[in-house]
Amino acid sequence: MAVGIPPRFHGVIRGLDSTGSSPQFEGRFGRLFRTLPPARFKEDDLKKLAAAMVAEEEDDPTPEDQNPRDDEENTGISAGYTYFGQLIDHDLTFDPNSSLDKQNDPEALVDFRTPRFDLDCLYGRGPDDQPYLYEDDGLRFLLGRPLTGNPHDPNTRDLPRNAPLSGGPKRALIGDPRNDENVIVSQLQGIFLRFHNRVVSFLQGTDAIFYDIQRFVRWHYQWAVLHDFLPTIIGEETLHKILPHFKSGKSIFQDPPHLLLYKPKNDPFIPVEFSVAAYRFGHSMVRPVYRLNTTLPDRFAIFSGDPNTSLTGFREFPSQWAIDWSLYFDFGNHPNPFSKERVQPTYKIDSSLVNPLAHLPIPIGGQRPSLAERNLLRGLRMGLPSGQDVARKMGIEPIPDDKLRVGKANQDDTATNPRLTDISPGFRNNAPLWYYILAEAQQQFKNNDTPIRLGPVGGRIVGEVFVGLMLGDKHSFLNQDPNWKPFLDFQNGGKFGIPDLIRQAQKT
User: Fold this and answer.
1) Residue 493 — left, alpha, or beta (φ > 0 → left; ψ -120 to 50 → alpha)?
2) Which of 85, 108, 107, 112 is closest to 96 using CA atoms?
3) Are 195 and 505 in contact (CB under 8 A)?
4) How far apart are CA 264 and CA 19, in angstroms?
5) Which of 137, 200, 258, 330 has the highest CB neighbour count under 10 A?
6) Could you tell me which of 437, 116, 468 has the C-alpha nearest to residue 261?
């Protein structure tokens, strides 16, 4: 428990002291560390920390052809993983009821998404209940208008969109409207629509029905999550501690999973330590600008007042904005790393967010536009424990206060970044969990080219929840066919990852 903080005068919020490790069937949120006390902070201290975590505005981010490269870039993770992670988040969780302005009880929050890797953000309620998402055959997804600009994929398509008589924004007709909130995740949703259609074509001539096709699409997705996304984000060492059979080559029964934290007694649930803290690591990876394809002369801002230069979503964007995915994932073509053909890296996982994330557009940020402030206050409202308490509970020595810094992980800023305790003495041995997980990753920094992934606390939480949700899903490939592998025709040299999923989608 943090020291020097006065106790609450009004007791414990209903449910927080009794939120079990495994809630009810409805898919409610729960806790990994239900015996740990909530960390206590003054709201003004959290707002000061949020302000310190926001980088200064960049008038002109480092050009792509400059050597050395932008010192905020993370050489270990390509930019597409940020948005693949966003799609995963939308697949697992949807909580429209929690508020930043009142105490929240996780026991009373309902996860309106199934806590499974089942792509319900893609399928919605299926062709019987939402036939307007599907072609007349009830098998294939409907696609939108053609998009141009990707020289590797002349068949790029937008999402299907409505056409309001009022002339308002043309919003996407998809299973989860959040997957239209920016141009990149919107087009990634389109890739998954096309991958489903590709599987339909691949299985044509067999007796496969819609639910067979859906199962194989989900299993390929789950495989890419476990074999590509997770090792990229948490590192192979952490993943192999959780799934040792990945390393040993034995079966999952001979070398079973090793979960220390996530052990639902009944049905899987989403831990608030994961959804409110650990899985928000991706916010630090967001770049201020992205190149969409090499036919367009400019990079585009994540937020801009001009719709012609902004990647904001919930609208029909220009048709020449087709994303060239070889700029977002490594397809093995080894482009010049100092050219507009390069694979764009994410920004580093550290305790700094790019300046635009302090000025979220109203449809996303509402009346509290700072993403850092929103994350920190949500952790307070949810009664999350401190990062140090979680580390101790996991048997990990907490990071000393003098090593908890706030700012960018680069050679110019590391030495002068303020300590967390410089912002407020209330943070002494008492770091907000979301901040702590980012600062923990930041401890890996050695020089500007150091790849940075999640550390032992953040990586273990994310890894165990991912694996635990798949093990808890009786329809996942880990349960139904643990020896299953992606279709041989879909593999690339015996492997299958996100780039291979995209390659297959582009064949439709």
Assistant:
1) left
2) 112
3) yes
4) 12
5) 200
6) 468
Residues 180, 87 contacting (CB under 8 angstroms) = no
Residues ≥6 apart with Cβ < 8 Å to 24? 266, 267
Omega before residue 127 within 30° of 0, cis:
no
Return the pLDDT at 265: 86
Q: Which residues contact 388 (CB under 8 A, 6 or more apart)?
A: 2, 398, 399, 429, 430, 431, 436
Q: What is the pLDDT of residue 72?
A: 97
CA atoms of 114 and 120, how far apart (whole Å):
8
- Tell me which residue of 414, 400, 290, 408 sits closest to 345, measured CA to CA: 290
Half-sphere exposure of 80 (CA within 13 A, CB side): 23
Question: How many whole angstroms separate alpha carbon 178 and alpha carbon 120?
Answer: 12
**Rounded Cα–Cα distance for residues 184 and 174 (Å):** 15
The pLDDT value recorded for residue 435 is 98
**Phi and psi for 488 in degrees, rounded to 5?**
-60, -40
Question: C-alpha dihedral over 190, 191, 193, 194, to 10 degrees?
Answer: 120
Q: Which of 344, 330, 348, 326 is nearest to 290 (CA)?
A: 344
CB 21 within 8 A of CB 264: yes
Q: Kindly list the averaged pLDDT for each block of 10 residues, start to end, along the chain of length 508.
A: 34 35 51 96 98 91 92 97 97 58 45 79 94 97 98 97 92 95 97 98 97 98 98 98 97 97 92 97 98 96 92 96 98 94 98 96 79 97 97 98 98 96 98 98 96 98 98 96 98 97 97
Bridge pairing between strands 300-301 and 73-78: unpaired
Phi, psi values for residue 436, rounded to 5°: -60, -40
CB 387 within 8 A of CB 379: no
Sequence letter at residue 141? F
- Residue corresponding to tokens 């302090």: 358
Structure tokens at 49: 């920390």
Type of residue numbered 85:
G
By DSSP bridging, strand 270-271 and strand 29-30 are parallel
Helices (H), 350-395: 362-365, 371-381, 387-393
The rounded distance, in Å, linking the Cα atoms of 98 and 194 is 34
d(Cα 112, Cα 118) in Å, to the nearest integer? 13
CA angle 355, 85, 295 (to 5 degrees): 70
Q: Smallest Cα–Cα separation from 429: which of 459, 389, 395?
A: 389
The whole-number pLDDT of residue 417 equals: 98
Q: What pLDDT does residue 114 have?
A: 75
Reading the block at residue 21, the tokens are 């490790």
- Nearest residue to 84 (alpha-carbon basis) of 170, 195, 238: 195
Q: Which of 221, 231, 233 is nearest to 188 (CA)?
A: 221
- Residues 458 and 378: their CA atoms lie apart, in Å, by 18
